[in-house]
Amino acid sequence: MTSxxxxxxxxxxDGDSLAHRAYHALPxxxxxxxxxxxxxxxxxxxxxxxxxxxxxxxxxxxxxxxLEVPTYRHEALQGYQSGREFEDAIVExxxxxxxxxxxxxxATAKAPGYEADDFLAAAAARWDGPVLVATSDRDAFQLAxxxxxxxxxxxxxxxxxxxxxxxxxERYGVEPEQVPDFIALRGDPSDRIxxxxxxxxxxxxTLLAQYGSLEGALAAGRFAPAADDLRLYRxxxxxDASAPLPELAAxxxxxxxxxxxxxxxxxxxxxxxxxxxx
Length: 278
What we know:
This protein has 278 residues and is of the alpha/beta class. Strand 5 (148-155) and strand 6 form a beta hairpin. The chain has helices spanning 15-25, 39-55, 72-76, 88-103, 116-126, 165-172, 179-186, 201-211, 214-219, 227-237, 255-264, 268-275; strands at residues 10-14, 59-63, 107-109, 131-134, 148-155, 159-163.
């Protein structure tokens, strides 16, 4: 939590990551207007309110994937993120969530060819002050610094671990800036990144301690037959901090407008709770 004497942070949220956690944490029986599924809407809105109360950020950005358009990662690596299938109910709610977030007065970022991760990296790079990045995606550990802290859900969306450089070193045995190299060497089953043959997390960390980087290992003659593939894996694992962002400016939540949007969506209990804050 930010103390009164510290600058208020930017709160950058991986919308898709947290929406999925909210969706699976709440009963599927929650319905909104017209009997439409609404568990992810309610859970995500509750998460936003709790985060606002806990961190009192200067500004909030919620970043989203564009599911309908492949990114350069999908085009460069056949099979990237293959096998992921989402239930219709969560896809429907993901389409509505950005407008619900905007009703709070919070900024949203979504553009063809980019993943939510990329907007988080861009926000961390461009905000002049402390940044909190809320995501369950450990790729974001590459952003950890003395200025950027990762908020990682450890139980649904109700409990968060704070990840800084020390926690990255403790968990992976590497520095935050080495995380893309670590992923390239170890691989990432969730994204279908194969990694170097026979290399697991401990070996990847040992190699990076010895050589400093993937390029250092390749320059020493390691993994020569797989060099081009490993460089591709690293590029895929790197977040793109050049992603386009909306204006990020300090703003207080518009609780009344959020309450009205929740009411429009048939979320009566949520609307009442938000209206009480107005």
